[in-house]
Amino acid sequence: MNVLLKSAKVISPGSPYNGKRVDILIENGIIRSIKTNIKEKNSKIFEAENIHVSPGWFDMQVNFRDPGYEYKEDLISGTKAAAHGGYTGVAIMPSTHPPIHTKADVEYIKNKTADSIVDVFPVGALSYNLEGKDISEMYDMYRSGAVAFSDDKKSIADAGLLMRALLYAKNFNGLIMTHCDERDISAGGTMNEGNTSTALGLKGMPALAEELMVARNIYLAEYTESRIHISSVSTAKSVQLIREAKAKKLKITASVNAYNLILEDNHLEDFDTNCKVNPPLRVKSDIEALKKGLTDGTIDVIVSDHSPEDEENKKTEFDHAAFGITGLESSFAIANTVRGRLGLEKLIDKMALNPRKILNLPVPGIEEGQKANLTLFNPELNWKLEKRHIHSKSKNTPFIGTALQGKALAIYNKGKFLVSI
Which range of residues forms the domain containing residue 404? Predict the structure, then answer.
Protein backbone atom coordinates (compact mmCIF):
# COMPACT_ATOMS: atom_id res chain seq x y z
CA MET A 1 0.00 0.00 0.00
CA ASN A 2 1.24 3.49 -0.89
CA VAL A 3 0.89 5.97 1.96
CA LEU A 4 1.72 9.64 2.44
CA LEU A 5 2.35 10.62 6.05
CA LYS A 6 1.77 14.34 6.54
CA SER A 7 3.65 16.56 8.97
CA ALA A 8 5.17 13.80 11.10
CA LYS A 9 7.89 14.59 13.63
CA VAL A 10 10.71 12.08 13.25
CA ILE A 11 12.00 10.43 16.45
CA SER A 12 14.85 8.30 15.20
CA PRO A 13 18.28 8.79 16.80
CA GLY A 14 20.86 8.69 14.01
CA SER A 15 18.46 9.74 11.27
CA PRO A 16 19.29 13.02 9.48
CA TYR A 17 15.62 13.92 9.93
CA ASN A 18 15.55 13.33 13.69
CA GLY A 19 13.50 16.02 15.44
CA LYS A 20 12.15 17.46 12.17
CA ARG A 21 8.57 17.59 10.92
CA VAL A 22 8.37 16.15 7.43
CA ASP A 23 6.11 14.44 4.93
CA ILE A 24 7.04 10.83 4.21
CA LEU A 25 5.98 9.08 1.01
CA ILE A 26 5.96 5.28 1.10
CA GLU A 27 5.59 3.34 -2.15
CA ASN A 28 5.48 -0.45 -2.31
CA GLY A 29 6.93 -0.75 1.18
CA ILE A 30 9.88 1.60 0.52
CA ILE A 31 10.38 5.14 1.81
CA ARG A 32 10.60 6.99 -1.53
CA SER A 33 10.67 10.59 -0.40
CA ILE A 34 11.08 12.66 2.76
CA LYS A 35 10.45 16.37 2.32
CA THR A 36 8.89 19.34 4.08
CA ASN A 37 5.88 19.19 1.82
CA ILE A 38 4.97 16.42 -0.62
CA LYS A 39 1.99 16.61 -2.98
CA GLU A 40 0.87 13.17 -4.08
CA LYS A 41 -2.58 12.19 -5.38
CA ASN A 42 -2.16 8.43 -5.78
CA SER A 43 -1.45 7.47 -2.17
CA LYS A 44 -3.49 7.11 0.97
CA ILE A 45 -2.95 10.27 3.00
CA PHE A 46 -2.61 9.92 6.76
CA GLU A 47 -3.01 13.04 8.85
CA ALA A 48 -3.61 13.43 12.59
CA GLU A 49 -2.84 15.86 15.37
CA ASN A 50 0.76 15.89 16.63
CA ILE A 51 1.95 12.88 14.63
CA HIS A 52 5.33 11.50 15.63
CA VAL A 53 7.02 8.72 13.66
CA SER A 54 9.73 6.33 14.83
CA PRO A 55 11.20 3.04 13.73
CA GLY A 56 8.62 0.35 14.44
CA TRP A 57 8.44 -0.63 18.09
CA PHE A 58 9.62 -4.09 19.09
CA ASP A 59 8.57 -6.07 22.17
CA MET A 60 11.10 -8.78 23.03
CA GLN A 61 9.01 -10.53 25.70
CA VAL A 62 5.44 -11.56 24.92
CA ASN A 63 3.37 -14.70 25.31
CA PHE A 64 0.88 -15.67 22.58
CA ARG A 65 -0.03 -19.09 24.12
CA ASP A 66 -0.21 -20.79 20.73
CA PRO A 67 0.00 -23.77 20.42
CA GLY A 68 -1.85 -25.37 23.30
CA TYR A 69 -3.56 -22.49 25.10
CA GLU A 70 -5.34 -20.77 22.22
CA TYR A 71 -8.34 -20.02 24.45
CA LYS A 72 -6.12 -17.45 26.21
CA GLU A 73 -4.44 -16.08 23.07
CA ASP A 74 -3.45 -17.28 19.64
CA LEU A 75 -1.02 -16.03 17.04
CA ILE A 76 -3.72 -14.12 15.17
CA SER A 77 -5.17 -12.31 18.18
CA GLY A 78 -1.70 -11.76 19.62
CA THR A 79 -0.35 -10.09 16.51
CA LYS A 80 -3.52 -8.01 16.27
CA ALA A 81 -2.99 -6.80 19.85
CA ALA A 82 0.65 -6.03 19.06
CA ALA A 83 -0.24 -4.07 15.92
CA HIS A 84 -2.84 -1.96 17.70
CA GLY A 85 -0.33 -1.34 20.48
CA GLY A 86 2.12 0.12 17.96
CA TYR A 87 4.47 -2.85 17.63
CA THR A 88 5.78 -3.96 14.26
CA GLY A 89 7.81 -6.81 15.78
CA VAL A 90 7.67 -9.16 18.75
CA ALA A 91 9.69 -12.02 20.21
CA ILE A 92 7.41 -14.66 21.67
CA MET A 93 8.33 -16.77 24.66
CA PRO A 94 8.30 -20.59 24.55
CA SER A 95 5.72 -21.27 27.29
CA THR A 96 3.31 -23.07 24.99
CA HIS A 97 2.08 -26.67 24.88
CA PRO A 98 4.21 -28.22 23.58
CA PRO A 99 6.90 -25.65 24.31
CA ILE A 100 8.90 -24.13 21.46
CA HIS A 101 11.76 -26.60 21.88
CA THR A 102 12.38 -28.04 18.40
CA LYS A 103 12.94 -26.63 14.91
CA ALA A 104 9.44 -27.81 13.96
CA ASP A 105 7.96 -25.67 16.73
CA VAL A 106 9.92 -22.63 15.52
CA GLU A 107 8.81 -23.23 11.94
CA TYR A 108 5.18 -23.53 13.04
CA ILE A 109 5.33 -20.03 14.54
CA LYS A 110 7.14 -18.55 11.55
CA ASN A 111 4.83 -20.11 8.97
CA LYS A 112 1.60 -19.21 10.76
CA THR A 113 2.58 -15.55 11.12
CA ALA A 114 4.30 -15.05 7.76
CA ASP A 115 1.50 -12.87 6.37
CA SER A 116 1.07 -10.73 9.49
CA ILE A 117 1.92 -7.02 9.48
CA VAL A 118 3.84 -7.79 12.69
CA ASP A 119 7.20 -9.57 12.45
CA VAL A 120 7.10 -12.53 14.83
CA PHE A 121 10.31 -14.11 16.12
CA PRO A 122 10.22 -17.23 18.30
CA VAL A 123 12.36 -17.54 21.42
CA GLY A 124 13.30 -21.20 21.74
CA ALA A 125 13.21 -23.10 25.01
CA LEU A 126 16.61 -23.29 26.66
CA SER A 127 15.88 -26.69 28.16
CA TYR A 128 13.91 -29.52 26.62
CA ASN A 129 10.24 -29.29 27.59
CA LEU A 130 11.14 -26.35 29.90
CA GLU A 131 12.12 -28.93 32.51
CA GLY A 132 15.54 -27.45 33.35
CA LYS A 133 17.29 -30.79 32.86
CA ASP A 134 18.65 -31.12 29.32
CA ILE A 135 19.65 -28.49 26.78
CA SER A 136 17.17 -28.22 23.92
CA GLU A 137 17.96 -28.39 20.20
CA MET A 138 19.31 -24.85 20.33
CA TYR A 139 21.35 -24.75 17.14
CA ASP A 140 18.63 -26.36 15.04
CA MET A 141 16.14 -23.82 16.37
CA TYR A 142 18.58 -21.00 15.69
CA ARG A 143 18.97 -22.17 12.08
CA SER A 144 15.17 -22.20 11.76
CA GLY A 145 14.73 -18.66 13.07
CA ALA A 146 14.83 -18.65 16.87
CA VAL A 147 16.34 -15.33 18.00
CA ALA A 148 17.15 -16.30 21.60
CA PHE A 149 16.71 -19.08 24.17
CA SER A 150 14.90 -18.98 27.49
CA ASP A 151 12.78 -21.06 29.83
CA ASP A 152 10.58 -17.98 30.23
CA LYS A 153 9.41 -17.61 33.85
CA LYS A 154 10.98 -20.92 34.88
CA SER A 155 14.26 -19.78 36.37
CA ILE A 156 17.15 -22.15 35.62
CA ALA A 157 17.96 -23.73 38.98
CA ASP A 158 20.81 -25.88 37.64
CA ALA A 159 23.86 -23.61 37.38
CA GLY A 160 25.71 -26.26 35.38
CA LEU A 161 22.93 -26.43 32.80
CA LEU A 162 22.95 -22.66 32.35
CA MET A 163 26.75 -22.63 32.09
CA ARG A 164 26.67 -25.28 29.35
CA ALA A 165 23.91 -23.43 27.52
CA LEU A 166 25.92 -20.20 27.62
CA LEU A 167 28.99 -21.96 26.26
CA TYR A 168 27.02 -23.75 23.56
CA ALA A 169 25.19 -20.62 22.40
CA LYS A 170 28.49 -18.75 22.27
CA ASN A 171 29.50 -20.88 19.28
CA PHE A 172 26.88 -19.16 17.09
CA ASN A 173 26.55 -15.87 19.04
CA GLY A 174 23.22 -17.00 20.45
CA LEU A 175 21.50 -15.10 23.24
CA ILE A 176 20.36 -16.60 26.55
CA MET A 177 17.47 -14.81 28.26
CA THR A 178 17.01 -15.58 31.95
CA HIS A 179 14.23 -14.94 34.44
CA CYS A 180 15.90 -14.58 37.84
CA ASP A 181 14.10 -16.20 40.75
CA GLU A 182 15.63 -18.49 43.36
CA ARG A 183 12.62 -20.76 43.86
CA ASP A 184 13.98 -22.30 47.05
CA ILE A 185 13.44 -18.86 48.56
CA SER A 186 10.34 -17.58 46.74
CA ALA A 187 8.37 -20.84 46.38
CA GLY A 188 4.74 -20.39 47.32
CA GLY A 189 5.01 -16.61 47.28
CA THR A 190 2.27 -14.57 45.65
CA MET A 191 3.53 -10.98 45.98
CA ASN A 192 6.49 -8.90 47.09
CA GLU A 193 7.70 -9.67 50.62
CA GLY A 194 7.28 -6.55 52.74
CA ASN A 195 4.90 -4.55 54.86
CA THR A 196 1.98 -5.03 52.51
CA SER A 197 2.35 -8.81 52.30
CA THR A 198 2.54 -8.97 56.11
CA ALA A 199 -0.57 -6.82 56.50
CA LEU A 200 -2.49 -8.92 53.96
CA GLY A 201 -1.29 -12.24 55.35
CA LEU A 202 0.11 -13.35 51.99
CA LYS A 203 3.35 -15.28 51.52
CA GLY A 204 5.96 -12.98 50.08
CA MET A 205 8.50 -13.27 47.29
CA PRO A 206 11.66 -11.64 48.69
CA ALA A 207 13.75 -9.32 46.55
CA LEU A 208 16.63 -11.55 47.62
CA ALA A 209 15.27 -14.40 45.48
CA GLU A 210 15.73 -12.31 42.35
CA GLU A 211 19.01 -10.73 43.38
CA LEU A 212 20.76 -14.00 44.24
CA MET A 213 19.93 -15.38 40.82
CA VAL A 214 20.96 -12.15 39.07
CA ALA A 215 24.33 -12.33 40.83
CA ARG A 216 24.81 -16.01 39.97
CA ASN A 217 23.91 -15.50 36.33
CA ILE A 218 26.29 -12.55 36.05
CA TYR A 219 29.10 -14.72 37.42
CA LEU A 220 28.27 -17.44 34.90
CA ALA A 221 28.24 -14.94 32.03
CA GLU A 222 31.61 -13.61 33.17
CA TYR A 223 33.10 -17.10 33.45
CA THR A 224 31.86 -18.20 30.04
CA GLU A 225 32.42 -14.82 28.35
CA SER A 226 28.96 -15.26 26.83
CA ARG A 227 25.99 -13.04 26.13
CA ILE A 228 23.16 -13.05 28.65
CA HIS A 229 19.99 -11.01 28.97
CA ILE A 230 18.45 -10.49 32.41
CA SER A 231 14.69 -10.34 31.86
CA SER A 232 12.13 -8.46 33.95
CA VAL A 233 14.43 -6.75 36.45
CA SER A 234 12.38 -5.51 39.40
CA THR A 235 14.57 -4.59 42.40
CA ALA A 236 17.04 -1.83 43.24
CA LYS A 237 19.79 -4.30 44.13
CA SER A 238 19.37 -6.12 40.82
CA VAL A 239 19.83 -2.83 38.98
CA GLN A 240 23.01 -2.15 40.94
CA LEU A 241 24.40 -5.62 40.24
CA ILE A 242 23.80 -5.17 36.51
CA ARG A 243 25.30 -1.68 36.58
CA GLU A 244 28.47 -3.06 38.17
CA ALA A 245 28.61 -5.90 35.63
CA LYS A 246 28.33 -3.46 32.74
CA ALA A 247 31.12 -1.36 34.23
CA LYS A 248 33.28 -4.47 33.88
CA LYS A 249 32.32 -4.65 30.17
CA LEU A 250 30.52 -7.97 30.54
CA LYS A 251 28.16 -9.01 27.75
CA ILE A 252 25.02 -8.31 29.77
CA THR A 253 21.76 -6.62 28.82
CA ALA A 254 18.57 -6.21 30.82
CA SER A 255 14.89 -5.39 30.48
CA VAL A 256 12.10 -4.13 32.73
CA ASN A 257 8.37 -4.73 32.47
CA ALA A 258 6.41 -1.52 31.86
CA TYR A 259 4.00 -2.23 34.71
CA ASN A 260 6.88 -2.49 37.19
CA LEU A 261 7.59 1.18 36.48
CA ILE A 262 4.24 2.38 37.77
CA LEU A 263 2.54 -0.10 40.13
CA GLU A 264 3.61 -0.60 43.76
CA ASP A 265 2.82 -3.64 45.89
CA ASN A 266 0.15 -1.68 47.77
CA HIS A 267 -2.04 -2.01 44.67
CA LEU A 268 -2.73 -5.51 45.97
CA GLU A 269 -4.51 -4.26 49.10
CA ASP A 270 -7.88 -5.10 47.54
CA PHE A 271 -6.57 -8.52 46.39
CA ASP A 272 -6.88 -7.64 42.70
CA THR A 273 -5.58 -10.75 40.95
CA ASN A 274 -4.85 -8.67 37.84
CA CYS A 275 -1.98 -7.20 39.87
CA LYS A 276 -0.54 -10.63 40.64
CA VAL A 277 2.58 -10.80 38.49
CA ASN A 278 6.01 -12.40 38.39
CA PRO A 279 8.30 -10.69 39.21
CA PRO A 280 5.94 -9.12 41.73
CA LEU A 281 5.13 -5.45 42.10
CA ARG A 282 7.78 -3.98 44.38
CA VAL A 283 8.00 -0.77 46.46
CA LYS A 284 8.60 2.88 45.56
CA SER A 285 12.36 2.75 46.13
CA ASP A 286 12.63 -0.15 43.66
CA ILE A 287 10.59 1.76 41.07
CA GLU A 288 12.84 4.79 41.39
CA ALA A 289 15.91 2.57 40.97
CA LEU A 290 14.39 1.03 37.82
CA LYS A 291 13.75 4.47 36.35
CA LYS A 292 17.31 5.54 37.15
CA GLY A 293 18.58 2.33 35.54
CA LEU A 294 16.71 3.18 32.36
CA THR A 295 18.04 6.73 32.33
CA ASP A 296 21.70 5.81 32.84
CA GLY A 297 21.62 2.88 30.42
CA THR A 298 21.84 0.04 32.95
CA ILE A 299 18.47 -1.25 31.71
CA ASP A 300 18.39 -1.51 27.94
CA VAL A 301 14.80 -2.43 27.09
CA ILE A 302 11.20 -1.89 28.20
CA VAL A 303 8.90 -4.86 27.52
CA SER A 304 5.19 -5.50 28.01
CA ASP A 305 5.62 -9.01 29.42
CA HIS A 306 2.25 -9.61 27.75
CA SER A 307 0.80 -12.62 29.59
CA PRO A 308 -2.83 -13.35 28.64
CA GLU A 309 -4.88 -15.38 31.11
CA ASP A 310 -8.51 -16.49 30.88
CA GLU A 311 -11.06 -15.48 33.52
CA GLU A 312 -11.00 -18.92 35.14
CA ASN A 313 -7.34 -18.44 36.03
CA LYS A 314 -7.78 -14.87 37.27
CA LYS A 315 -11.23 -14.69 38.87
CA THR A 316 -10.38 -17.04 41.69
CA GLU A 317 -8.81 -17.00 45.16
CA PHE A 318 -5.66 -14.88 45.17
CA ASP A 319 -3.39 -17.77 46.18
CA HIS A 320 -4.61 -19.85 43.23
CA ALA A 321 -4.75 -17.12 40.58
CA ALA A 322 -2.28 -17.19 37.71
CA PHE A 323 0.48 -14.60 37.41
CA GLY A 324 0.37 -12.14 34.53
CA ILE A 325 -0.94 -8.97 32.88
CA THR A 326 -1.86 -8.31 29.26
CA GLY A 327 0.05 -5.28 28.12
CA LEU A 328 0.64 -4.85 24.40
CA GLU A 329 -1.93 -2.07 23.97
CA SER A 330 -0.87 -0.15 27.07
CA SER A 331 2.89 -0.59 27.56
CA PHE A 332 4.04 2.41 25.54
CA ALA A 333 1.51 4.66 27.26
CA ILE A 334 2.57 3.41 30.70
CA ALA A 335 6.26 3.92 29.97
CA ASN A 336 5.63 7.31 28.36
CA THR A 337 3.45 8.45 31.26
CA VAL A 338 6.19 7.81 33.82
CA ARG A 339 9.33 8.34 31.69
CA GLY A 340 10.37 11.53 33.49
CA ARG A 341 14.02 12.34 32.73
CA LEU A 342 14.33 9.48 30.25
CA GLY A 343 13.16 11.63 27.35
CA LEU A 344 11.29 10.54 24.24
CA GLU A 345 14.34 9.63 22.15
CA LYS A 346 15.69 7.30 24.82
CA LEU A 347 12.24 5.79 25.27
CA ILE A 348 12.21 4.92 21.56
CA ASP A 349 15.70 3.45 22.01
CA LYS A 350 14.32 1.16 24.72
CA MET A 351 11.20 0.16 22.77
CA ALA A 352 12.35 0.03 19.14
CA LEU A 353 16.10 0.03 18.60
CA ASN A 354 17.76 -1.75 21.53
CA PRO A 355 15.54 -4.87 21.40
CA ARG A 356 16.54 -5.48 17.79
CA LYS A 357 20.21 -4.77 18.47
CA ILE A 358 20.23 -7.26 21.35
CA LEU A 359 18.54 -9.92 19.21
CA ASN A 360 20.86 -9.25 16.24
CA LEU A 361 17.98 -8.15 14.03
CA PRO A 362 18.11 -5.38 11.40
CA VAL A 363 17.27 -1.98 12.89
CA PRO A 364 14.89 -0.01 10.64
CA GLY A 365 15.81 3.55 9.74
CA ILE A 366 13.88 6.57 8.53
CA GLU A 367 15.70 7.53 5.33
CA GLU A 368 14.90 7.52 1.63
CA GLY A 369 15.40 4.08 0.08
CA GLN A 370 14.88 2.20 3.34
CA LYS A 371 12.16 -0.38 3.87
CA ALA A 372 9.32 1.27 5.79
CA ASN A 373 9.00 -0.21 9.25
CA LEU A 374 7.34 2.57 11.20
CA THR A 375 5.19 3.38 14.21
CA LEU A 376 3.07 6.55 14.21
CA PHE A 377 2.10 7.91 17.60
CA ASN A 378 1.10 10.95 19.63
CA PRO A 379 3.18 11.13 22.83
CA GLU A 380 0.95 13.82 24.32
CA LEU A 381 -2.46 12.27 23.69
CA ASN A 382 -4.39 11.83 26.94
CA TRP A 383 -6.71 8.83 27.00
CA LYS A 384 -8.14 6.10 29.22
CA LEU A 385 -7.60 2.42 28.54
CA GLU A 386 -10.95 0.73 27.97
CA LYS A 387 -11.84 -2.85 27.11
CA ARG A 388 -12.55 -1.80 23.53
CA HIS A 389 -8.87 -0.91 23.16
CA ILE A 390 -7.80 -4.46 24.02
CA HIS A 391 -7.59 -6.77 21.00
CA SER A 392 -6.11 -9.67 22.95
CA LYS A 393 -8.46 -12.55 23.73
CA SER A 394 -7.77 -11.95 27.43
CA LYS A 395 -8.44 -8.76 29.38
CA ASN A 396 -6.43 -9.43 32.54
CA THR A 397 -5.10 -5.97 33.22
CA PRO A 398 -5.53 -3.61 36.18
CA PHE A 399 -5.14 -0.59 33.89
CA ILE A 400 -8.70 -0.54 32.49
CA GLY A 401 -10.03 2.91 33.35
CA THR A 402 -6.54 4.31 33.98
CA ALA A 403 -5.66 7.73 32.56
CA LEU A 404 -2.55 7.48 30.38
CA GLN A 405 -0.54 9.76 28.11
CA GLY A 406 0.75 8.73 24.70
CA LYS A 407 -0.80 6.37 22.18
CA ALA A 408 0.07 4.53 18.99
CA LEU A 409 -1.91 5.81 15.99
CA ALA A 410 -0.83 3.44 13.23
CA ILE A 411 1.94 1.17 11.97
CA TYR A 412 3.44 0.48 8.55
CA ASN A 413 5.39 -2.71 7.88
CA LYS A 414 5.85 -5.26 5.11
CA GLY A 415 3.95 -3.05 2.68
CA LYS A 416 0.89 -2.98 4.95
CA PHE A 417 -0.69 -0.08 6.83
CA LEU A 418 -2.87 -0.42 9.93
CA VAL A 419 -4.57 2.47 11.70
CA SER A 420 -5.37 1.89 15.37
CA ILE A 421 -7.42 5.02 16.14
Answer: 3-52+368-419
